[in-house]
Design a protein that fits this description.
Order of helices and strands of chain B: HEEEEEEEEHEHEEHHEHEHEH
Strand content of chain B: 25-35%
Distance between the termini of chain A: 28 Å
Number of strands of chain B: 14
Oligomer: heterodimer
Strand order of the largest sheet of chain B: 11-10-9-12-13-14
Largest sheet of chain B: 6 strands, mixed
Radius of gyration of chain B: 26 Å
Structural class of chain B: alpha/beta
Shape of chain B: elongated
Helix content of chain B: 10-25%
Structural class of chain A: alpha/beta
Number of strands of chain A: 12
Strand content of chain A: 15-25%
Largest interface: A-B, 17 and 14 residues
Strand order of the largest sheet of chain A: 1-5-4-3
Shape of chain A: globular
Number of helices of chain A: 9
Order of helices and strands of chain A: EEHEHEEHEHHEHEEHHEEEH
Radius of gyration of chain A: 19 Å
Chain lengths: 320, 349
């Protein structure tokens, strides 16, 4: 760990319904940062977390397999380490320098049931709320596929937020009746056909000209609209209340939406470019539906961006 | 001293008449003509034999009649013997052996011959004026080898049944066999492509190829939501010419084909070769007289696909009336026309 590393008291917590892709998201984060090749990286804050990082990442890269779901809050402590620009005002000319910062990625990969109102392990749920209270950045995972099939995101959201608000109501930071966190709402599984096609129909797909693979993305400015549209296919019809609940409990300017995919789209290794006629990177196993695999290489989309955004916001760096 | 010995005398005795088997010949128009097929000439001796290929059509309850006539010059026929045997329709290699003058034995039939007591007039009257004739056909069987071992065996069994049935009735039949399984989208698992096992072969060769394929067993690896039907059809479309006869494509399988491109409805991964089963089917459909049959055990989601593949004849794997199925493809006649005598086919007939 660098000697001049400045670490922050409050970290980032990850939160979402069961099977919403949190574990894979975490695993893909390391890959995405490695692909980026500079600036930022994830390191384990302790031996267990470093080992966990390896065991999460290796299946994705080596075996084309998803990492196993994490059981219970294991309290991995990772650090998102990077450099952010700082300015020292001087009399005639400001001095600019890069500061090495570390944000605790206290990514409590809470097993989703803990957020459910039916969860019997109240102690562990309380632990999840402890972690959310301790954090000032939240990665909120919204799985539109699960929502269309089960539709329980609201159930997993409302109870936790209500308890978190109740816990923090006496805090100075609760002024204005809203929680102080920055929230990166990640609409996951962009690589799934139904999500992709919805974005396509809404004409929200863009391609970064600098991306050599030409993978499609949804611009962050349009991500909320996609979320809103995907709420229409919620199995229970409650997904729109997720949006409202988040925007009621947090300051709207502290919420940012991202359309993400941990595994990305399939890129044929022979052609080396994205093919819109053959996008699926998820390889289902009909004999073991609970154990799909990954067809090609992993190309995470918008996985590191939410964390970098949270990191910068927690460090007081504005979007601009 | 020369001794007179009756056995020696009979053994040395030669025939003085022609012996002929009564057979039918089918003319080009399908008319049946009664005629004699020479077995032994007047010079034949005990122990002589004669081989001939015959084809038996379905018979009535009395069986197929093997009647031998003698013939004195110039053409004076006398009924010599009338026997019959219950035989399945099909081709037989018959061997007639002259045991002695006045006794001929037939070998090569799976059933025993027994005396037939019907009168000659009765037998002749039971000959239909004609039997249906079919244009030469090229039966192309595409069989899916993915699934359980039982499923695959059952599919092979159905194809075997079909070939045997059609071969028994179809004079000029060529058979092709193509197998297909799943694509593998897993880089660790190599896939076996759709493969032509035999092309425009005789029925018995195709049955041998089918046996070999059957011995290879089922393919239970790979992406299980579809099978390379699109690749199999593309190969057929590229190879088919029509010169082997009117094409009859019979697909036997369960899974749907892979789409040519991303399919939001089924979410089945697209064919890596981007083959389109619809395009291939359309191409095959341009051949004059082509017929499409399908025997499937697919799920309800794939009904539409199988109905297109079996637009002329469709059946479920578990319940196939093979004769009716073949009749819908104009490979056989649905109505059974009993034909009392064996048929000998002659070149140019």
């Amino acid at each position: 760990m660098p000697d001049n590393l400045r670490t922050y008291e409050h970290g980032i917590a990850m939160w979402g319904a069961p099977s919403s892709g949190k574990t894979t998201f975490l695993a893909a984060l390391s890959i995405a940062l490695t692909r980026r090749g500079k600036d930022w990286k994830v390191i384990g804050a302790d031996q267990a977390s470093a080992e966990k990082l390896i065991t999460l990442t290796t299946p994705l890269t080596r075996d084309h397999a998803f990492p196993p779901a994490t059981q219970g809050i294991e309290g991995f402590r990772w650090l998102l380490v990077g450099e952010i620009p700082r300015t020292i005002p001087k009399l005639f000319r400001s001095e600019r320098y890069m500061e090495t910062v570390g944000f605790s990625l206290d990514l409590a990969d809470a097993q989703g049931e803990m957020a459910s109102p039916n969860w019997a392990g109240l102690g562990e749920r309380s632990e999840l709320i402890d972690r959310l209270e301790q954090s000032r950045g939240i990665v909120f995972i919204f799985d539109p596929i699960r929502e269309s099939e089960i539709g329980d995101t609201f159930d997993h959201t409302f109870g936790v937020l209500t308890q978190l608000a109740q816990r923090m109501v006496g805090s100075q930071e609760f002024s204005g009746g809203r929680l102080p966190h920055h929230v990166a709402v990640c609409i996951t599984k962009f690589d799934e056909i139904r999500v992709f096609r919805t974005a396509e129909k809404l004409n929200l797909l863009v391609v970064d000209p600098a991306d050599p693979l030409g993978l499609p993305r949804v611009a962050d400015e349009d991500a909320r609209e996609l979320f809103s549209q995907l709420c229409d296919v919620s199995r229970t019809g409650n997904a729109d209340m997720v949006l409202n609940t988040l925007e009621q409990h947090f300051w709207p300017e502290r919420i940012k939406y991202f359309v993400t995919s941990a595994i990305g789209f399939y890129v044929n290794p022979r052609k080396g470019v994205y093919d819109p006629d053959d996008i699926q990177n998820l390889l289902p196993d009909t004999n073991h539906p609970e154990r799909p695999s990954i067809r090609g290489n992993v190309h995470p989309i918008n996985v590191m961006e939410p964390l970098l955004w949270l990191g910068k916001r927690l460090a007081g760096v504005s979007d601009g | 001293m020369d001794l007179w010995h009756p056995a020696t005398m009979i053994a040395d005795e030669v025939l003085t008449q022609w012996y002929e088997l009564v057979v039918l010949r089918r003319t080009r128009s399908g008319r049946l003509v009664l005629e004699g097929c020479q077995l032994f000439p007047p010079s034949a001796q005990r122990g002589d034999s004669r081989r001939l290929a015959i084809r038996c059509e379905p018979s009535d309850g009395n069986g197929t009649v093997f009647a031998v006539v003698t013939c004195d010059p110039p053409r004076n026929f006398r009924l010599f013997s009338v026997e019959s045997a219950a035989l399945a329709p099909g081709r037989y290699e018959l061997t007639a052996e002259l045991m002695r003058p006045g006794l001929i034995r037939f070998h090569g039939l799976p059933s025993e011959l027994h005396a037939d007591h019907r009168s000659w007039q009765e037998l002749v009257a039971s000959i239909p004026a004609r039997i249906d004739t079919y244009r030469p056909a090229h039966l192309i069987c595409a069989v899916e080898v993915s699934g359980t071992a039982d499923q695959v065996q059952e599919r092979m069994g159905r194809i075997g049944q079909l070939i045997r049935h059609v071969e028994a009735g179809e004079r000029q039949l060529r058979v092709s066999l193509i197998s297909y399984g799943p694509h593998s989208f897993d880089y660790r698992m190599p896939e076996e492509s759709a493969r032509i096992r035999t092309w425009a072969s005789a029925g018995d060769e195709a049955l041998i190829a089918l046996d070999k394929l059957s011995d290879s067993g089922a393919v239970d690896v790979g992406y299980a939501r579809a099978a390379q039907l699109e690749c199999a059809l593309t190969k057929v479309a590229a190879k088919i010419t029509g010169r082997h006869g009117r094409p009859v494509l019979v697909t036997v399988g369960s899974r749907p084909p892979y789409p040519a491109r991303m399919d939001p409805a089924s979410e089945i991964l697209p064919c890596p070769e981007r083959n389109s089963w619809r395009r291939a089917l359309q191409h095959i459909g341009t051949h004059p007289g082509v017929k499409f049959g399908a025997i499937h055990d697919g799920g309800p989601d794939d009904e539409d696909t199988w109905h297109r593949l079996g637009s002329d004849a469709i059946a479920h794997l578990k319940a196939v009336h093979i004769r009716r199925f073949a009749a819908s493809l104009e490979l056989l006649s649905l109505t059974v026309q009993p034909v009392p005598f064996p048929i000998v086919e002659k070149a140019g007939s």
